[in-house]
Amino acid sequence: MSHQCTGYSDSAGMPRRRFLNQFGMGLGAVALSDLVKSDLPADDSSGGAMDQLHHPAKAKRVIFLFQSGGPSQIDLWDHKPHLNKVQGEQLPESIRKGQRLTGMSGNQSSFPLVGSPFKFEQQGESGQWMSELLPHTAGIADRMCVINSMYTEAINHGPGVTFLQTGSQFPGRPSIGAWLSYGLGTANQNLPSFVVMVTKNKGGQPLVSRLWGSGFLPARHQGVRFRSGKDPVLYLNNPAGIDRSSRKRMLDAIDALHHMQLEKQFDPLLETRIAQHELAFNMQASVPEVVDMSGESKETLEMYGPDVHKPGSFAANCLLARRLAEKDVKFIQLYHPGWDQHGGLPGGIRNQCRETDQPSAALVKDLAARGMLDDTLVVWAGEFGRTNYCQGKFSGGNFGRDHHPRCFSLWMAGGGVKPGAQYGKTDEFGYNVIENGVHVHDLQATLLHLLGINHEQLTYRHQGRRYRLTDVHGEVVRGVLA
Amino acid sequence: MKSVKYIVRDSGRLFCLISVFFAQQFFSPPLFALQENNEVDFNRDVKPILSDRCFLCHGPDAETRESDLRLDTESGVAGVVVAGKPEASDLIERILSEDEDHMPPVDSNLSLSAEEIKTLELWVAQGGNWEQHWSFVPPKKVQLPKLDSVWGANAIDQFILSRLEREKLKPSLPATKNVLLRRVTFDLTGLPPTIEELNAFKADTSDEAYEAVVDRLLASERYGERMTSDWLDVARYSDTFGYQVDRDRFVWPWRDWVVRSFNQNMSYDQFLTEQIAGDLLPSATDDQILATTFNRLHSQKVEGGSVEEEFRVEYVADRTHTFATAFLGLTLECARCHDHKYDPLSQKEYYQLFSYFNNIDESGLYSYFTNSTPTPTLRLLKPEQKKKLATLKTSLMEVERSRPENSSQGGGRKGIEKVLEVKGTDPVEVVDFNAVGGGNEKTTDARGNAAVKLSGDDAIGLKTGNFTRYQPFSVSLSMNTPDKKERAVIFHRSRAWTDAASRGYQLLIEDGKLSASLIHFWPGNAMRVKTKQEIPLNQWIDVSVVYDGSVDAAGLSIFVDGQEMELEIVKNKLTKNITGGGGNNIAIGQRFRDRGFTNGLVSSFKVYDRQLSSLEIALAHNPEQFKQVLLDSNANGELSSLQLRMLAEHLELNDSETFSKYRTKLKSARQALCGELDRATEIMVMREMDQPRDAFVLGRGLYSSREEKVSAATPSVFPAMESTLPRNRLGLARWLVDPNHPLTARVAVNHYWQLVFGEGIVRTPEDFGSQGALPTHPELLDWLALDFVEHGWNVKRLMKQLVMSSVYRQSSQVSDEMLKRDPANELLARAPSYRLSAEMLRDNVLATSGLLINKMGGSPVRPYELAASFKPVKPDGGEGLYRRSLYTYWKRTGPGPVMMVLDASKRDVCQVKRERTSSPLQALAMLNGPQFVEAARGLSHRLIASNQGQPVGKLVDEMFLALTTRRPTGEERSVVAELYRTQLEYFQANPDSSIEYLSNGKFGDYGKLKSGMKILFPANDHDFRLGETPNGTEKFQGEFGRASAWGRVLTAKEVNRLYGVDRNQALDANWKFELSNRKPIKATSNEAIGENQELSQSFVFENSSKLKFSKGLTFEAWVKPSRGGLGRIWDKITPGGGSGLLLDLHGGLRFICGSVVRMADRAPAVGQWSHLVCTADMKSGQVCFYINGAPAGGDFSDPVEVDDSEDLAVLAAWSSVANALFNYDECVTKR
Q1: Which tens digit of pLDDT belongs to each residue from B448-465?
Q2: Residue B1138 has what pLDDT?
Q3: How far, rounded to the nearest angstrom, does the alpha carbon of residue B512 sit from its chain's CA centroid?
Q4: What percentage of residues in chain A have a pLDDT greater than 70?
Q5: Which chain A positions have a beta carbon within 8 Å of B915's beta carbon?
Q6: Residue B399 backbone dihedrals phi, psi, to 5 degrees
Q7: What is the Cα–Cα distance from B532 to B511, expressed in whole angstroms?
Q8: How many CA atoms lie within 13 A of B336 on its CB side?
Q9: With 50 as the cut, is the pLDDT of residue A27 above it?
Q10: Nearest CB to B979 within list A206, A231, A253
């Protein structure tokens, strides 16, 4: 029967094209258009809902290093020497202004201020302030844009992460990556356009799959989670006992049956199914290839640090992110949990930095060395910041900080962002933004802007309304653009 | 640059849902372009344009309305339209204008196409009449259309045909019997038809054959499961709470209620009423109350530090949205923050609806530290439990009736003094404030006793306090509050506040008053009393909290300065334990994440395990004064009844044997009742509070931004609720099922239509409003809706009506031309064809494989795929792997990944329609997922067994038939047979691959083959031998009797029988060693063998090298070893090589075959004859040893049920064929 099979390289091309021409409006067309897309430049944007980019893109892809739990900006980025001076004193009401606190520290009787125990220094020619916890990141100071004036609306993790990833605090909306997949389609037909990786074996606040879900967008836009085990994608590997030749024979037979069926009756949905089988077969080869790091040079591996050899570590995921970026995956989302330091902050944050500092910096350097940083946007951010006062009683040494939505810091690099820049200011207590506040929706608008999308125009109609990532808000933060 | 003012943007803004900023063509182009002579239909042609492009600024939302012009009302439209004169109408003029006043404005990103402008002009020319939105007008009685041709089985067909005739089209031919049976069986039961069912249907040539099938399916219990599977999406059913922490919750009895309701054909109006308001029905049954769990299936929060009210409001909103989406087909979310932009629903009306669902005694957070069921709840009792509870209640009442007469305390100074001398038992704990450390400041109280000033952040922990609710106890203390506390924890026995739902008991200051509570789950399962008066500030007061163990708020009192306080009973609904959950002892002044008694002073803290008498309390406050008052009153003969009662009570509590006995009896009766209540399982339901909770319009939907107060009312666009109906959920349900309601029946029939036709008549089932799709067959929708109501909302009747129609029974075959003309099949000139649902796809392979366990109901099960979910769950063993998908454990934050890939609903919010997408992940899941791989083997196993000796083609036919309900064509047969042939070749050449492939999944236990114990019979040229290696080494020291070998595994029974046979008697074995064929091996070496050399014997079985015992093997040998340690018994081994087989003594009795090494658990005795047997199942790797007929170690668990005759390569090859066919379009698609 093999003579009946046209094989996977060329079997589906003709009828699909025929289909596209004839049934441009049909049900299967949208799904299919994702697939027929080959390696086109991102600004061609075919395959997505957008006919063309709204303006030229600076970034073709995003690597989002999500630091889940809320890293303490006071101990990493936002240098507040004043806090060390007033350490132990009460948070003045003139600063707090009666704003709501979480139920965790909101009922505390006192709010003793705590300065950072870590040394801050200015780094690079740009003189970025950074704490001693980030020796490697210091090395990319002149490539980064640090925003110290982020603020959000959520005070707890669930709503906070959901807000940053979907523009709403409550479940049900598509995540950024899903919006991009929907709007821009995919640039590599053998890989998903939105890939998610979560650092393995980290405790901390739980992450849930809807954070990379597609919400009301079609499910194919949801993030595909790469696992660190033997199946990087759900059931990617053939079951034990079925090798690639066996699998091919099985798919060839199905393909033959499908083509017999097509001869009897043209059916766009069947065409789609044929194509999906082909893509599945291709993914079985392309995904293991992309996750196989054996070809990486010793220098590269060393740059990411010793953890790079542990599958599922942040370092390994950062390196994998670069490999996926090379394959033109549009949105690569990493999650690194564990930043929720309500207590034991000095030790906890040191550990977190040990796991993330070197790989994050290495990723930026690696991209730059390969000439990819120009069109790859790297974002390092958590869902909110931490309080300038101590959670619970301050007894020196080992203290904790509660969630703080009023200000936090993040950095971006590459992809059209101003290098070596610092943006926005907080008051001397590190409590409120006093200059150039950047709301979460502003960040989202900026992100889309860099990808050539007007955030007000990428919309999807659901339940009678048009939705967008930024709800009805958001302004592009021009001040951070290169 | 943005200024600071943006930062005060408020937290928690919820849904702001409008984002119309650019023009996009959303409506699929009309099937047929509007012609000049066409009549414009306002609802069909005009309204969608006005709604989508104009309503944002000229619609229902007053807030954003520009220039007071409304285009959503008749009068508004009349102001800008001159009937019949487009050129004189402002509306048209502004649309056509090329000036600045052009509409829609350029900056709106909206525009009108030429076609749309033409439509509007035509409409004005034809009179520009306005109509209420179609779905808000009750369905009108519709005449059956007149037709030119004759076709169809029932009324449905006439409507469909009428439209087809208008389009000059014809319906398709009927589907084949095979296709039809497959289609209707899936639609009504979610499962494929069996071959027997197919044969029976085909054999029945009567006119009623199909109807009989339909009736059979509707009567099947599988029907209820299929219908429920669909309803779980609507109800956002999940076995966990959702949000981040996502713990398990117990709600599956509700799911089983739904299955029962469908199977019993509960009428739709009842189905709806019980779910919305079953608790409010007159003398509601448990089942009716259980139905209301529907309203509690939303996500629930437990994340630490969350604001309780924020999430409670979220729950109420979810209920409201679910109600609207499920039953009204409307999306209300918009109106949560502002007036609806498109539909005539104001924000106020939203909160009026909201207020129906706002009145249950619930918390916005469930309990992190305890497993209490969030209130309100229903006790789920088995009949025997109910009986037992009734008995225990009666016993308690009997004990209560046996209360002794009150003792009377006469008087006289002497008598009183005597009473005053009676002392109760000492406190179980007295806090020593001198010894208290931590952040609290030591001080003294007004009496000079040691006291503390509390920091509010440091608790003072006690050693006692773990009291039950049926046990009397008291706590007394002195305290002093520096200010009027809104809330402060004075003392408590609990792990935490909201994080434990306050389980335990507590004394708080609330709004300056004292409040004492006993709590299982706050607020719905608790008792609380609160003083009517505020306590004084900056003043020491003596406070006692006394509880009598009665589980009634009347038995909980608060005393201040010796006086019993007047109390308000806040809650009196404690029905479960107040113990457990941690925090077992009393803590003073602080609680986890609660507000402590900051700067409050406390002293003289005592804990009693008994009820203090009022006399003791009064005495403790001021002994001298109180004594004097009593004595004076007595002397004046003026003892008040209160004073008398106090005296009597004191005696009863502390000096009366009668009362003491009574109290013991009472306590044990209460304990028995409480114990039984504690054992009862509970499920979340609705239970209306006595007083509705106040509801408000919430500014921008924000929980904390209360505006105008509202009460329950239905939106004014709908017919008003009958004045006789109660303004609660029951009234709401009755209003909904009023036959005159424009939406309820339409939404319902549309939903069921969608269930069998894949798409609704209204293709946006979630939105019947202005922005929703128009019905493809409006008259049919109305006819069906009215017919449904007239026939008592009979769901099975409706389902039958739908599947009996000729439209349904058409073929789905379509010509290229028709496909182009009507790609979305809106005209239904053919039957629809679409992929089966996720549940059907999985259930299909389970059913055809024969693995499906058709057990109904019960706790959720965990199939394989859950191990691969984002929150991995260990799969069940046994039948849990093979239940229908309906019963799969649904974890909200990590649902079954295969279900998700196959487009199952996420079940996070009410969803009435699923996406149907296509992705490569689907192919991967169905080719590689263990459930599918295993089912393929199940199917093959079954078919191989029933087709022994049949040609390959026969089996191909059977497999094809099982999976597609038809036989393959010759061409198809040869493709499948060829696949089988090539796969067989492959597996024959790769026996390891066969075993590996067959080891996926548990069915058949082939897994054991894989577990590294598989035994491969050695391929070498050596004969079997006894007593030494081919090198002549490792000689056996001792004697041999009979030795035999079999090419199969002997059973324990057979082994035992062998043991009974004389050691020199030959047996019927494949190979036996007996005197007659004994062939001593020539002396092989000079090796010293030890002192028993003369006993050493070696024998070879000539020509035995060709023997291949590849399935099973049994060695037998009678031996009399002369020493322990080394010594070869049986041997077939390549010297120095790995490949070989042996049984020897090697520090014990040992068996080796290839890499498999097994040891017996004992060895034959030295110097005695022993009968040794070793069996090896080559397939399963099971090795068993026997010594003297009794098991001596090895694997004696149930043997693997692999049929001896089964050829693994054949099974593997067929399995891979079945696995491939699972992905064949006809197996996957309903057609």
Answers
A1: 999 999 999 999 999 999
A2: 58
A3: 43
A4: 89
A5: 218-219
A6: -60, -45
A7: 11
A8: 23
A9: no
A10: A253
